User: Fold this.
Amino acid sequence: MDHQKTGFFIAALRREKGWTQKELAERLGVTDKAVSRWETGKGMPDVSLLKPLSETLGVSVNELLAGEAIEPEQVMERSDALVLRTMKESGERIWRFRRNVLYALGVVLLAGSLLFLGFDVSYVAVFTALAGVLLLAAAVFLTFRGRPKKALLMAALVLLFSFCLLEARDYVFVKYYRLPPQFNLQIVWGENGIRYDKLFYDVYRYHVDTADETYVIAANQKNEMINSKLN
Assistant:
C-alpha cells in the first residue's frame, strides 16, 4: 500500500468533515501527532484502528488502504488487487528483514575478527572473518536480487574489498604493532623463527615470544639468507 496516498486520503476526508487533526485524534483516542504522521505518509494506523478510522471517516477499510474511493462495481477487483499488493509488500518486508540481519551479523563478525580476535594467529579469527565476509556478500546479493548480474557483480566487489581490507589489516599489524598476520597461505616453523607465507609477500618472525622478537617483511621471491636463519 502507498502510505502517502493513504495519508492524503485521510487528510482529505478529515477536511471534508471540517475536523482538525486534534478533533479526529480525540474521536479515535490517539494523539494529534499520530494523525499527523498518517497524513504525511510517515506512518500507518495500527491494524486495530483501521475499522474505527474507516467508520469515523465514512469509508470502507479497503478504500482507506487503497487511498481512494472505490466504486461499488470495482469492489471485488480492487479488493483482490489490494490483497495481492499487501502479500507482495509483506514478502518484501521479510526479505528486507533477512537482508538486514545478514548485514548486521556480517559487520559484527568482520569487525570482531579485525579488532578483537587478531592478537595472535587464531583459526577462530580467520573463520570469523570469512563468515563475516560471506554474510556481507550474501546480504549485498539479496539487496540486488531483482537484477542477477548486478547482484553477482556487487557481491564479487564486496569479496574483493574485504580481501583488500584483511590484507591491509595484516600488513598494519605486522609493520606497526609487531603482531603476526592472521591470513596466510601457510605457516612454516623453523628452529629460529616462523615464516608466514602471504599472497603478495612473506613475513619472517624471529626470537618468538621473547623481548627481542622481530618481524621482517620480504618479497615472495625467498631471500635465502633470511630463510636460512629459520633453521
Notes: DSSP finds nine helices and four strands in the chain. The chain has a mean pLDDT of 84. Strands lie at 186-189, 193-197, 201-206, 214-219.
